[in-house]
Structure of Catechol 2,3-dioxygenase-like lactoylglutathione lyase family enzyme:
Amino acid sequence: MCALIKAIDHVQVCIPPGNENKARKFYSDILGLPEIEKPDALKPKGGLWYQIGPLQLHIGVENMTRELGKRHVAFEVVDIEEARTLLNQKSIPIKNETPIPNVDRFSFRDPFGNRIELLQKVIVHPKKKA
């Protein structure tokens, strides 16, 4: 199956009906993501779309429970500490994630309970032999 999958095109998280303005405030104003226009055929379903480099983030509308599960999107950032500072200034609670090799990361929740992970890959230089 893996040979058939070329790349990730988009990730979708969800918001309850009627919350597009609240989502736009978070994703556009706080995170600074550029919103793109949805195809006309999908506009009646509500929601928002964002372009992030070659990928898209789709904010879909559905009736949601309050369960805070593992659903998430992970964004690679240029400077993890700058991102942490920005979110702290906006009073967004941050959760330090379990450490994994060569990655600095943390997560937070959007206003709808979707988990967002930010990560920065750490370049490890091999030690020179003496």
About this structure: The radius of gyration is 17 Å. The chain has one domain: 8-121.
